Amino acid sequence: MSHTKTTGQTPRKAALASFLGSMVEYYDFFIYGSASALVFSHVFFPDAGAATGTLAALATFAVAYIARPIGSFFLGHFGDRIGRKRVLIFTLATMGGSTFLIGCLPSYSVIGVWAPILLVLCRVAQGFSAAGEQSGASSMTLEHSPEDRRGYFTSFTLSGTQAGLVVATLAFIPVAALPTEALYSWGWRVPFWASAVVLIVAMIVRRTLEEPPAFEEMKESQEIVKFPLMVFIRHYWGSFLRIVVCHLYATISTTVTVFGLGYAVEQWNISRSSMLWTIVISNIGQVVTIPLWAKLSDKIGRRPVFAVGALGCAASVFVYFWAITTSNWSLVVLASVLLGSVCYAAPNGVWPSLYGEMFDARVRYTGLAVSTQFANVPQGFLPTIAALMIGTGAFGWVPLAILLAVLCVLAAAAAFAGRETAHVPLKHLGRTSRTTAAAPAARVTTTL
């Protein structure tokens, strides 16, 4: 504790604030995924037919991933200019408001085409907000953490994300068990309305957290740049490309939780509630294993932990889809735990520190936000691509599994493309010879 008192860092408080904030943000984000897979084709696209309606509902899920890169420019800019804390409060309020409004939307049968239009607008707001949540929470926690435990504390941002998925799925289990008429009329709305309660708790915790010392020191020394995006473009394009390829592993998540859910229910007659419980079990495991993998990365490095996990995903995704075709729920659970709790948790827990350590404090929020949100675009489209690629019969999933495996192998290779940063001091992170030389000029021409 003496360490945090002398440095002004509060790693535990920062980790808690990141955990709760991410849990709320991604509870909101993930209940939309469950609803788009199970409900929205009937509520908002009833005249499109079963297959077309499902594609249209999944396309509204993808819309947020288009909005996220746009949001990253704005939220990253202000996160580096006015502070991490204020932007993170804004992201919580935006996500919470748009999610509550989705629960209030009239159906297609009531207002016609305006129903899906309003749905898309709310989804855009969700995506805009999500663009700044993980990057801001990761930046803040990284800068609050002691040097030898940055990976561990920063990983709680992603533990919160997986906890949000757990709570979102638990919220949908009783809803999915409702009679069809109740589910499509009012039942699906309840999880969207319920998010307001948890939002209040997270907002209270986040408001009590102070800006990290690294940001306050930049303000005092007048190193805050006026246009962090320009510094990012000029000096960090290599880090941007590395992150985009590294993050291809994350296509596993949306494919499994959005497409895999519908695939198992519709083609292999596994009940909705059984598949929702599978997602819950896997992600409860991830809440536990994510900080353990991240703690290991503090000792042996970010790159090996990330790469081994990504390669594990490449292999275990075949096991996961095969298990679905058996219609044996126990096998599906075991395969899901292997894929999610064991393999996927490794890169998922390490990326906040691995990516964040590629940038210095002047552009860390911008660098993380822009890089990860452009990297996230494929995630939004993978469920739709999966629906188009999937074939019939026991091996119709193989082309999709091959695609996902290739993406994970590329992610593992990209993890080793740069230097290891686990043991580099915070003040030296992201400081290349070019950025160090450019710093004095940046202070003269582009500071506040």
TrEMBL record:
Signal peptide limits: none
GO cellular component entries: plasma membrane
Membrane-spanning residues: 26-45, 51-75, 87-108, 114-131, 152-178, 190-209, 240-263, 275-293, 305-323, 329-347, 368-390, 396-417
Limits of the Major facilitator superfamily (MFS) profile domain: 14-423
Pfam hit, one: Sugar_tr
Residues in coiled coil: none
GO MF annotations in UniProt: transmembrane transporter activity
Keywords, sorted A to Z: Cell membrane, Membrane, Transmembrane, Transmembrane helix, Transport
Membrane topology: Multi-pass membrane protein
Species: Streptomyces botrytidirepellens
Main location class: membrane
Subcellular localization, as worded in the UniProt entry: Cell membrane
UniProt KW Membrane keyword: yes
Record protein name field: MFS transporter
